[in-house]
Amino acid sequence: MFAQKLRVEIELNGEKKPCPLEWLDSFAMRNFTRSAEFDDTLPTGVGHLEAGLNVDPRRLAAALEQWFNGRGMGQGKTVRVEVSAG
């Protein structure tokens, strides 16, 4: 089921760093995202998650950006997200 190991980095104020685990956890709870597309995601640590083969990393990055920015996780600053194999 979780065939992809992905690395998730955020960029905030021009600084890149691994995505906090609590941010990934909040996104991964389906009752909050209501998006079946990302049901096959499992946060495994700071900046890391595993996903099924049907999860497109580019779409996941866009969804994470929307989620983080929509909830003010950047404290008024825009959060950019990059998802890559890893």
Order of helices and strands: EEHHEEHE
Number of strands: 5
Specify the biggest β-sheet: 5 strands, antiparallel
Integer count of domains: 1
Oligomeric composition of the shown chains: single chain
Structural class assignment: alpha+beta
User: Level of helix content?
Assistant: 25-40%
Average per-residue pLDDT, rounded, comes to 89
Q: Which descriptor suits the 3D outline?
A: globular
Q: What percent of residues are in strands?
A: 25-35%
Count the DSSP helices. Answer: 3
Give the low-pLDDT segments. Answer: none
**Span from first to last CA?**
17 Å
Rg of Cα set:
12 Å
List keywords for this structure.
alpha+beta, 30% helix, 86 residues, five-stranded antiparallel β-sheet, 3 helices, 5 strands, single chain
